[in-house]
Amino acid sequence: MMAKTFKTQILASVSATVLCTALIAGSAQAQNKKNVTTTSPTLNFYGLPGLIDMPSAEAMPSGQGAIGISHFAGQTRTSFSFQFSPRISATFRYIGIQDFNDLGFDTYRDRSFDFRYLIAKEGRIRPAITVGLQDFSGTGIYAGEYLVATKNFDRPLSLPGKFKVTAGLGWGRLGTLGSIGSPFGADRPVFTGGDTGGELSIDQWFRGPMAPFGGIEWQVNDRLGLKAEYSTDAYTPETSRGVFTQESRLNFGAEYQVNRGLRLGAYYLYGSEFGINAQLQFNPNRPVSPFALAGPRPVIVRPDRAVNPDAYDTTWADSERAPGVIRDAIAPELAEDGIQLEAVTISSIRAELRVSTGRFENQAIVVGRVARTMARILPPSVETFDIVLVNNGLAMSKVTVARTDIETLEFVPRASGALLPVTVIDSAEANPPANALIEEDLYPSLSWSIGPYVRTSFFDPDKPVRVDVGVSAIASYRFAPGWQLAGEVRHRLAGNIADSDRLSNSVLPRVRTNAVLYARGGDTTIENLYLAKQWKPSKNTYARVSMGYFEQMFGGVSSEVLWKPASSRLALGIEANYVMQRDFDQLFGFQDYDVATGHVSAYYNFGGGYYAQVDVGRYLAGDHGATFTLERQFANGWRVGGFFTMTNVSSEDFGEGSFDKGITLTIPTSWFTGRPSKQVVQQTIRPIQRDGGARLSVPGRLYEQVRGGHKSDLVADWGRVWE
Amino acid sequence: MIRSLKTTVALGAVLVLAACTGGRDSSSSQAAQISSYREALREVRAAKQPLPELTPALIESLPTAALEVVLEARGDTVFVVPYSDRTDRRKGALRTWRTASNGQIVMRDGVLIATRGLGYDLGSSRVLSVLNAVEQRSPVSGPHNYFAKGFDNSVTRIDLECEMQSLGDVRIDIVSSIHSVVHLRENCLGPDDLSVTNDYWVDQRDSTIWKSRQWGGPELGYLSTRLLKK
User: Fold this and answer.
1) Fewer CB in a 10 Å sphere around the end CB: N or C, chain A?
2) What range defines the domain where residue A189 resides?
3) Residues A265, A313: one domain?
């Protein structure tokens, strides 16, 4: 019965992951039904590039993500790994060890992070070399370090396929069998469990016994792979508690490549246990559907001025009706492309169009489409186009292009690259010029959606995945430029988040750990309901004021100012909020707890898709500190990041995990559908949600609203300007 | 709290089917995303139209020029018609062909230089030596540069060095229409041992490319074309 319950829980723990990645796996299969050849390294039981239980030195292709689910001897490990750069990768892991029967657990559950750095890439003779830190900030049951080398050999000894030989040195858990000494000191504590964990165990790294491990992998053909390894893991915490008996140091396995993304394996481990491993690898650079946008209208080239000088007559600009006529011609054509014309300013030689879009995340496409339309419709004398990109009333940037370049560069070799140097991208004035013709029909505007919602809760030791489902109604009413009244009402139809009996034990103000009480508070709730106004006080600054119920747990007033020149990689912001904790029923009332919270923020775009953010300030529980965020954004909109927050709350007061940290994943809907869209699927995964370092979730923060229209992102997207 | 499984599944299915949105704002709500996936699926189904059977009578009845294009990597065949014709300061007349769903194929004198709306499009390319060869109806070797969009939506430059050869004069049959052409083959080598072969069947009298097999980039692959009506 116990085993059945455990299996049920394991199934539940992996089900969400499997569901989320089903499309990904399907895409890999659909894209390549016959060819399963992959150059990606295979994974071990920890979800890392490796043999069976031991790591190897290979790195996955840059940007690659991997989900590994392995099971043997009552131990299940679910891992998510991401190759953040060509050399750096990180792993988050959730495990369950059945029949642990210690530390208050029947089944011991734990979360851990790994970090790997590829010191040397494989050369003709030199092997790849990697250093790795395993479970470097958890409670340490898997804590270990390694230095490992791997070399590939094609068809050695005239055998078919490829051989991969791995040899390494392990410390910590990976140095508990066959030690050859303790070169960096023997003073390494053993795993005891039960502490808060979460802190970097720097004083332990590479200390204690060191042991050599190794193995070989033989990829016999495209599908079949065989592995054998010598393990240096004594599994002391597990064998001492009777989880299983270790009879051997050798492990063996066979793996089958189902398609380019999915690989399944079966193994015989430690002379006593059978195990299985499922490895799913995916890359943001390989979308489910190729991005395809219906082709643009052709540019109409003006007649040669020398041949037809009359066509360049400018007297039309003297007519008061000219802006209106031009607007009436341009707006419908842009609207067909999903672009709204907000304002027109025109003279005989220059025109400014202010445009916004709810359709394209890639603003370079917007620039191209608007420039084409201007070249098709405007009188020939208009030579300079100013295209002001607007998002929710905020003028993000002004892109200036010459009409002649639009006419002549579309079909030259390196067409997009040729247009960029002759294009000027700069900050836009806050408002249109005084003589602009404002498109009045855009306001008021009502947007809405009705449909299902799913709320998840992860890592409850009793039930690792809890889910509520129901119906949600969302509305957003924009009654004037920059103004928004928005809200969401939910009605829960089913779920089990409220069934958890793990109520908060926090010694801090319970600003985040009362999630179960909120879930029990009621079936019909107001998720958020707020009024917001945002505007540009000057050419390079943006401002926002919001009031209402911002999120499930807090409401109040929020204000923000952001400095961000369109061509700057750096942005600075300041946010001040006064909020009160909402009643558990999530209707209109508040509880007694209120707090003034806010941050000073610095944002920096390093280029190449790497973004960093530092927020310093006061958090919801009244603690002071800073949040550090690093994120990688791919050209197609995928974003993968990590963050951690250090505040003046002690590890003991914070509780399990010691400090707040997590990973963020953003996948654009267009990656699945191939259609242009601003929609994204977002998920933040924290090992544990506590009350320290908790930040208010307020809708409409400014940086995210404007960065896509600024120079760095526009240049990154520029390859699509002619589409 | 938990209702029966059947009730929950039934309610969930109804909600998924009933999810709907309206207005101008883009929303990332789960309901809005379900609507997007549903719409994409509907478009994919709607795009699967059976192709007409090509006959001389059908081609004769066409009011405009027509080109058959086979996207070999996808196994798709499309028929395209002229969308716009123009010239610029470079060699060769520009023609943009388009499909019924407004995918576009851009050619200079019948030589592929760009695509739009097909996915993994060819952004632009340098084809001067091929244009010279087509004009002269004899081999001209030289560089062939591609600026192709990859899986990640960014543009990759691919420089190929190409040797062209003539495979001789042949007669080809395009839906019972016979053309005397010279078969020019362009063998190209690029980075990472990339090998590309382009074929052009060029009219011996006026350099019209009646048939071709041209590479459009690593993901788009080869486009085989037949000019059904000039």
Assistant:
1) N
2) 2-282
3) no
